[in-house]
Fold this sequence. Notes:
Layout: H1 5-53, E1 59-70, E2 73-85, E3 94-96, E4 100-105, E5 111-116, E6 118-122, E7 127-137, E8 142-152, E9 157-168, E10 173-183, E11 189-199
Amino acid sequence: MGISKFENLKIRFASMNRIDTYKFVKSIAALLCVAMLFSCNNDMRNLQELNLRHKFPQGEAYNFKLVYTDSSLVVAELTSPLNEDYTNQHMPYSEFPEGLKIDFYDQQRHKNTVEACYGIIYPTMGMVELRDSVRLTTYDGKRLRTEQLYWDQKEDWIFTDKEFDFRDDAKGTVTKGIGMDFDKKFSTVKAHKTTGILAIEDND
C-alpha cells in the first residue's frame, strides 16, 4: 500500500523539523562557545585593568631617609614619613603619599629646602616630581610657592609649569607668574610668564 501525499508531507515536515532542530542546537552550542570565549577574554581584560588600577608596592619604609652624594659629599637629603617602593612596575618609581622634604647643599654647605605634601621619584629617569603645596626656601631668604615642581637630577635643574609665587627678601620683591626654572642655588632663575612684580615695603 502506497504512502499518501499527506503522510509523505508529514514525513518530510518531521524530517525538516529534525534538521532545523539539529541546526538550532548547533547554533546554540556555537553561541555558548563564543559567549564563554568572550567572557574569558573579558575576565582577562578585567584582571589586567584591575592590576593596572590597583598596584601594590613591593615594599614600604617608615621614617624614610635617602642621601644623595657626589664625590663623597652630601648634596641632598630626602626624608619622608612613608615611602612606597614600586620599582617592580614597568616604569619603576618610589612614592611618598604622606609628603616629603629635600635639603639641598651647595659646596659652601648652604642649605636650601623644598617640601611638598606628595612626591614621586622615577629612578631610571633621574626625575623627582613634587605636588600639592610645594614650598622651597633658600638659605638667603628666597621663597617659592607652587603646586607642582620637578627636579631633574641628571641636569641638576628645577622647574615648574604651574602658577608660582616667588619672594626675594634681599631684593624686597614678590614675583607672581606661570612657569619657572632655576638651579638649586637660585643663582640662575628664569620666569616663563610673569603676572606681576611687587615691591615689599620696609616699615623699619
